[in-house]
C-alpha cells in the first residue's frame, strides 16, 4: 500500500492535467448516507422508483417528501478532509476538473469551483413550465413548491434515471477525460452510467487512473492502482 500510495502521490504531483471523479463515498465521511452501502440511503426508498420522471408524474408529493427528507438530512453536514484535499488539488494543478455525481453540494461548500455536478444539485429547483433554475435552501421546503415567476410546479434540479445529462456537462467531461494525464476515481460504486464509463474513457485516452474505495468496484480491473481505504484517510495523503 505504501508504495502504491507513493506512486499515486507522485503521479498527482507531476500531473499536467488532473481530473477527479467522485461519488457518494466521498460524502460518507461527512455523514451523508451512500446509495448502495449498508447504511444505503436507497434501502428505505428504492431510488429507481423515486428518482425518475415517471415517479414524479405519478406522485410528485411522494417524490418531494423524499427529497425534502434528504435535504433535511444533508443540511447540517459539513465537507470532510477529502473534500478539502480536492480543493487543494484544484489550487495546485495547472489544469484541473472535478466531475461529481453527488447532489449534496459539499464540494462547492468546501470551495471547489472548477466542477461539473453531472447529476444536478439537491439545493437547486427547476420550474416544470418555464424551466428557470434557482437555488433554494428552504428546510423544510414546501411540498409541491411553485415557481415564483409562473406559479407552475417546481422539481428538483437533479438528473433522474432515464434522463440525459446536460449536453454541456457531457461535452465538458468528455474534453476533461480525453485530455487528462491523471484521473482519480473516489468513492463511487461504478454502476451508474455514463459516469461508470469515465474511467475507461480516460484510460483509453492514455491517462493514469487510480481509484480510492474501501471496496473493489467494476472498474478495479481496469485502473492502474486501487487504493483501499476511506476517502478522508487516503485523499489527504495524496497532497
Ligand atoms: C442516461 C440523482 C442517457 C438522483 C442519480 C434502464 C432504464 C433507464 C436507464 C437505464 C437502464 N439501464 C441503464 C440505464 C442507464 C442509467 C443507469 O446507469 N442505471 C444503472 C442503475 C444501471 N443511467 C441513467 O439513466 C442516466 N442517464 O443514461 O441518459 C439516456 C437517456 C434516455 C434513455 C436512456 C439513456 C442518469 C443517471 C443519473 C441518475 N441519478 N442521482 C438522486 O440522487 O436523487 S444516480 C445516483 O447514483 C447518485 O447520483 C449517485 O452519485 C450515483 C452513483 O452512486 P455512487 O455515487 O457510486 O454511490 P453508491 O452508494 O452506489 O456507492 C458508494 C461507493 O462509495 C461504494 O463503492 C462504497 O464502497 C464507497 N464508499 C463508502 N464509504 C466510503 C467509500 N469510498 C470512500 N470513502 C468512504 N468513506
Ligand atoms: Zn416557472
Short summary:
This protein is α/β, with parallel strands linked by helices and 239 residues long. It has helices spanning 2-13, 25-28, 41-44, 47-50, 53-74, 81-92, 106-110, 167-179, 198-204, 231-234; strands at residues 17-22, 95-100, 115-117, 120-127, 133-135, 154-158, 182-186, 208-212, 225-227. It is built from ten helices and nine strands.
Overview of this protein structure:
The chain is an alpha/beta fold and 239 residues long. It has ten helices and nine strands. A six-stranded parallel sheet has the order 3-2-1-7-8-9, with helices on both faces. Strands 5-4-6 form a three-stranded antiparallel sheet, covered by helices on one side. The longest helix is centred in the N-terminal third of the chain and has 22 residues, at 53-74. The radius of gyration is 18 Å and the shape is elongated. The protein starts with a helix and ends in a 5-residue tail after the last helix. The relative contact order is 0.20. The chain binds ligand BV8 and zinc ion. Zinc ion (ZN) binds next to loops.
How does the SSE layout of this entry go?
Blueprint: H1 2-13, E1 17-22, H2 25-28, H3 41-44, H4 47-50, H5 53-74, H6 81-92, E2 95-100, H7 106-110, E3 115-117, E4 120-127, E5 133-135, E6 154-158, H8 167-179, E7 182-186, H9 198-204, E8 208-212, E9 225-227, H10 231-234
Parallel strand pairs: 1-2, 1-7, 2-3, 7-8, 8-9
Antiparallel strand pairs: 4-5, 4-6
Helix pairs in contact: 8-9
The structure holds ligand BV8 and zinc ion.
